[in-house]
Each structure stands twice: as structure tokens, then as C-alpha cells.
Amino acid sequence: MQIASENVAEFGVDHAETWSLPIVARKGKFAPPAGEIVKMYAAASRQIAALEREVEVLRGEYSRYIAFHEQSHKEAAEELQKRADWAMGLDRELQETRAQKAELESRLWVKAGRKLGGV
After folding, report:
1. pLDDT tens-digit profile of 21-51?
2. Angle (nearest 5°) at CA 84 between 80 and 89
3. For the chain, which residues make up each domain, given as ranges?
4. Cβ-contact 119, 113 below 8 angstroms
5. Which end of the chain has fewer CB atoms within 10 angstroms, the N or the C?
6. What percent of the chain is modeled with pLDDT above 90?
């Protein structure tokens, strides 16, 4: 005895509930027809091939995704380094300018000008 609980869309069999399922019974051991098994095997083989193609497509897309993000990361790191170098250059310039200002302010002529009220 076999209870046919599987859905078979191509024959319009869709069991919404688990009650009132068809039952197949015969004397002796039940053996499904070989033709039906061959069809099911062929369908499964086609489905496997389609899934393998889909996996290959997804692997290709993922590889492109990884390459894009690695390139983006590299470009961002380079841009960050350029900006850090620029900021450090500005800081050096500021320190040099402050040193020059301090040197000018410490000269004798500037001190004398301040005392006389000219600077």
C-alpha cells in the first residue's frame, strides 16, 4: 500500500491538506513503472544542470563584486593617503610660518618699532 502524498503539478495534483489523500494498493510488492522513474530522473537531471549553471553565474557575479570592492577599497585608501599627506604638509607650513613670525617678532628692529609705537 502506498499513500500518494506528493504534489504533482504537471497533473494538477496539489494537496492543500494532509487528509483525503489517494491510496494505491495492489497484491504483491508495489513497483512504480520504469517509464515514470526515467521521466523523474530526466527532470531531476535537467534541474541539476540548471542549478549548476545558476551557481556558475552567481560565482561570476560574486567574483566581479569582490574585484569591484577591492578596487574601491584600494582607491579610497590611496585618496585617504593623499589627503593625509596634504594635511601634514599644511601643518608643516603652519609650523614654519609660526617659526618665521616668531623670528621676525624677536628681531631688534621690530622690538624697537614697538617701543616707539610704529609697529
Report:
1. 666 666 777 677 888 889 999 999 999 999 9
2. 150
3. 2-92
4. yes
5. N
6. 53
